[in-house]
Amino acid sequence: MTPRRVVCVTLNPSIDRTLCRVDADEAGWRVRLEHETAGGKGNNVARILRVLNVPTLAIVCAGGQGAKQITELLARDDVPVHLVPAPHNVRFHTTILRKRGRPLFVHEAGSPWWDDLYPDISRALATVYRAGDVVVVGGSPPPASPVTLVRDLIRYLGTTPTIVDAGPQYLIPALGANPYLVKVNDDELRRAWNMPEAPIAELLEKTAPSCIVGAVATMGKDGARAIWEEAFIQVQPLRVNEIASTLGAGDAFMAGLLWGLYRGETGAACLARASAVAAESIRWPTAGSIDPGRVNLDAIGVSVENKGGIRPW
After folding, report:
1. Of 170, 186, 226, 306, which sees the most CB atoms within 10 A?
2. Whole-prediction pTM value?
3. What is the CATH number of the domain that holds 104?
């Protein structure tokens, strides 16, 4: 399957602010606003896809003043957007870059679920859908959302290829709707199946049969493991010496997967691109930022092993 366009759904968007520490005194830290972007997994993925010249559309649920701000931020990044009005304002994510030590992250939970969200999203998807689209549903749905939310959206879309990258509580119900592909990190996969000590291969074997293509588990510095069209694939990531922030690396990985699919590449090649985009993203302090020229070079250096039907790990 080669998508013509990627539709990225963000149910619980944020305005992401990156603050640079300037000084500290008895009153606290003095900071300045360094950068501001439209956040949430779908928006981060869409922004990277635009940089990679993959046609995309962001569907964003947002209300209040934040809706206007998110629309303007996406327009600044040349990302087409379809706004679904929400009854609440959007949340903020703040990253504080310190002169020493790791960055500090302040995450708001977001506005709670509202009863009309499902029909509003369904109408939006019906309005914008084109033949050949792939839909990505991921990120953190609004608090108190029913665990069947992602499953119900997939069922509404019918035969539309849908890729899922949502929280662990939504994963198992979503498998009942046979998504096209599932991408999840290893911790989320273990929590979804409530098997904290289980090998990743075993959990992928439980997940992949319910998906049309398969399932991918990212593992941070240990790379990624996947069952893709019944083949076990192992990815060893590039080593990145200067890491600015790992925030959004999973979103970058997803964008890289979609980039490979858009190019009509094999599963192994898609995973190599995904790993390269994720490695490039952590060189930047803000989620959704990459240098596409460096990604092309990095993808060559990613180690990918296709083990066929034999479990290698």
Report:
1. 226
2. 0.90
3. 3.40.1190.20
